[in-house]
């Protein structure tokens, strides 16, 4: 369901498309000449001007995943979300909805809430104590001698916020894309059985990767490199992304085991009325999505060395631990794993053309007790290791893209989702530049 939201106030600010006409024409040509089926040219990953356009055309116009409801369960709870030049406050209001505001004081521009998370009543800027209500209205500005100061003109600038099935999304555009509601209708039936409003944060990890945000997303969208994830390969079948007829000999036995496990999982899902079908519209809609429920190896329950559950508490109204993982990819900045015993969310926030923040959050049932129902080290081990390995892969690619001898290489058949992401990305930027 969509939670109540505040009304956005448009403030476009300085646009990357105000670049000199010659430079903008060169960048537009770069996008128009993008070679299908090949990785991007080096400037897509290294050029500060392309990064500015990314912030305007992608992160400045589209819905991005910000947090889960478990991160701000009570009124007054907030998180701050930073990407590129932007900082947003996402705050739970008294009505149960979310208020989303730019984290920029209307007096001298100081960050109103410098912490990444916390609880607040009114929002008080630490510089000159300008004070804002939870909806962003300015309610106090101590200004001796000011007799004609109109506080109603200086509320925090607002953005759009939406909550679906326990996930919170934000958009800073004046007019947010309208098709996200339709995408939410696709994923809500898959997520609702996990009941995210009845989860809590077990752990959150922030990693800065020395790589462009698109390299982070590309790396996520394929398993061609999954031999480099030994911990993950214990439970995640490394045949993900492969199709019949393209199975290398060393994975044939794994493919057969995966096929059998998937058939068993689908029967179990049908017994419980849980959707499992693959929906893949990564580059055929503005709010691109891929979602499915897929079997895990071993016991088929969780991301552990033997596939066994990592928490003793089932989520929501689920009745079986052996439900594999519901995997969801959303353009442009997130992916998720919903299991019977816990949930892992991933959010990607660009910092600069060569730096990206990757935020991973582990959620467990709100009545699960650490040390009794789950061991935090075991719960987080697989993805902590996998994240470090992915960080290394991304940074290798960033170094390569910065080399004078770099040139785009072809995507393999198993990397079709990388191609879909890049196609989605170039479509959106070209629409904006047009």
Features:
434 residues; alpha+beta; Rieske Iron-sulfur Protein; Naphthalene 1,2-dioxygenase Alpha Subunit, Chain A, domain 1; 7-stranded antiparallel β-sheet; 8 helices; 26% helix; globular; Rieske_2Fe-2S; metal-binding; 2Fe-2S; Rng_hydr_dOase-A
What this model shows, in words?
The chain has 434 residues and is of the alpha+beta class. It has 2 domains: 16-33 and 63-164, Rieske Iron-sulfur Protein (3-layer Sandwich), CATH 2.102.10.10; 180-414, Alpha-Beta Complex (Naphthalene 1,2-dioxygenase Alpha Subunit, Chain A, domain 1). The protein is 26% helix and 23% strand. The protein has 8 helices and 17 strands. The protein has helices at residues 21-32, 43-46, 48-57, 180-191, 213-220, 252-272, 376-401, 416-433, and strands at 64-68, 77-83, 86-92, 98-102, 117-119, 123-124, 131-132, 138-140, 158-164, 167-171, 199-209, 279-281, 289-294, 325-330, 334-338, 343-352, 355-365. The strands form 3 sheets. A 7-stranded antiparallel beta sheet has the order 1-10-9-4-3-2-5, with no helix packed on it. A 7-stranded antiparallel beta sheet has the order 11-17-16-15-14-13-12, with helices on both faces. A 3-stranded antiparallel beta sheet has the order 6-7-8, with no helix packed on it. Strand 9 (158-164) and strand 10 form a beta hairpin. Helix 5 crosses helix 7 (376-401) and helix 5 (213-220) runs antiparallel to helix 8. The longest helix is centred in the last third of the chain and has 26 residues, at 376-401. The radius of gyration is 22 Å and the shape is globular. Residues 1-13 have low confidence and may be disordered.
């Amino acid at each position: 369901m969509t939670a109540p939201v505040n009304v956005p106030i448009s403030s476009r600010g300085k646009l990357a498309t105000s670049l000199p006409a010659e430079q903008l024409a060169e960048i537009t040509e770069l996008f128009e000449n993008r070679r299908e089926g090949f990785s991007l040219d080096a400037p897509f990953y290294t050029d500060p001007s392309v990064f500015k356009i990314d912030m305007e055309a992608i992160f400045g116009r589209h819905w991005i995943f910000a947090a889960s409801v478990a991160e701000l369960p009570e009124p007054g709870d907030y998180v701050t979300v930073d990407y590129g030049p932007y900082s947003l406050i996402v705050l739970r209001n008294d009505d149960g909805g979310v208020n989303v505001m730019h984290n920029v004081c209307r007096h001298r521009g100081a960050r109103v809430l410098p912490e990444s998370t916390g609880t607040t009543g009114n929002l008080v800027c630490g510089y000159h104590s300008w004070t804002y209500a939870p909806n962003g209205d300015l309610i106090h500005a101590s200004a001796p001698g000011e007799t004609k100061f109109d506080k109603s003109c200086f509320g925090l600038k607002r953005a759009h916020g939406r909550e679906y099935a326990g996930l919170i999304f934000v958009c800073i555009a004046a007019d947010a894309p309208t098709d996200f509601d339709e995408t939410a209708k696709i994923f809500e039936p898959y997520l609702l059985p996990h009941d995210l409003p009845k989860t809590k944060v077990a752990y959150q990890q922030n990693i800065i990767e020395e790589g462009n945000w698109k390299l982070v997303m590309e790396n996520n969208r394929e398993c061609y490199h999954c031999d480099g994830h030994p911990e993950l390969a214990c439970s995640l079948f490394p045949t993900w992304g492969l199709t019949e007829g393209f199975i290398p000999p060393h994975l044939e036995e794994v493919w057969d085991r995966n096929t059998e496990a998937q058939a068993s999982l689908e029967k179990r899902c049908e017994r419980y009325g849980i959707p499992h079908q693959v929906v893949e519209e990564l580059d055929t809609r503005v709010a691109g999505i891929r979602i499915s429920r897929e079997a895990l190896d071993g016991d088929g329950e969780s991301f552990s060395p033997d596939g066994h559950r990592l928490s003793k508490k089932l989520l929501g109204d689920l009745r079986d631990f052996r439900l594999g993982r519901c995997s969801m990819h959303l353009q442009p900045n997130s992916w998720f794993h919903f299991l019977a015993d816990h949930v892992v969310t991933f959010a990607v926030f660009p910092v600069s053309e060569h730096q990206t923040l990757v935020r991973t959050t582990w959620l467990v049932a709100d009545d699960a007790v650490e040390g009794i129902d789950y061991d935090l080290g075991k719960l987080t081990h697989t993805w902590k290791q996998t994240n470090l390995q992915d960080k290394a892969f991304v940074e290798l690619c960033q170094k390569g893209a910065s080399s004078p001898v770099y040139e785009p290489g072809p995507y393999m058949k198993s990397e079709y989702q990388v191609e879909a992401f890049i196609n989605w990305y170039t479509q959106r930027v070209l629409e904006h530049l047009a």
